Each structure stands twice: as structure tokens, then as C-alpha cells.
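Following up on my earlier thread - several people asked me to post the actual chain instead of describing it. Fair enough. Here it is, all 115 residues.
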Amino acid sequence: MNHRTERVSEVLKRELGVIILRELDFAAVLVTISAVDITPDLKQAHVYVSALGSPDQQRAVLEKLEKARAHLQSEVAKRLPLKYTPHLHFKIDEAIERGTRVLGIMNELGLDENV
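Reply from S.P.:
Thanks for posting it. Predicted structure:
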């Protein structure tokens, strides 16, 4: 990833986080934007979302984000001076869940998690 795509990814991550926090309500589920990968032509953005909740709650979060995608893209277009507004693709980021599972296994085995 070159410097420009890295910068656009970070700005997109920050702006989407603000927009989602202000405009969407996910009830009892904690939702954060963990990463954004953008294609080199800046036309497609894969938005990785952490949603702490059950698998059903995570699916509901993705559905809500998909329904709001056009609105989110228009808000991004207003805030970012890009030639093209990237098409947003939302995906659940399972890294936190995997990390928690690994730490749980380490604790069960009696291994120090600070190793």
C-alpha cells in the first residue's frame, strides 16, 4: 500500500467512525471500525467492523451498515475531497474474537499471557 492509499484509508476509517457513532444506533452492541483497506484506484473500500456481541447481533450490524451504505457514502463524499467516493464493503473483523479465544486457551493451559 502506498503512502496515499494509507492516508486515505486512515482518514476514511476516522470519518466513518464519527458518522456511524453519530447517526446509527446499534442498541447494546459495541461497534467500531477496526480497519479500512482501499484499492489503489481508491474506488473500493473494505471496511472491517468489530461488533462485540452474538453472531446474530453481528449479522444485524452488517445488515444495518449495508442498508445505510448509500447514506454513509454520501456523507464520506461531503467530508473527503476525493475524485471518486469509494464503494464501501462491510465485513466483520474477527481478529479481536480470535485474540480473546487464544488468551482464554492460554489461561486454561496455565500459560502466562505476558509471554
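Residues 46 and 52 are 19 Å apart (CA to CA). That should answer part of your original question.
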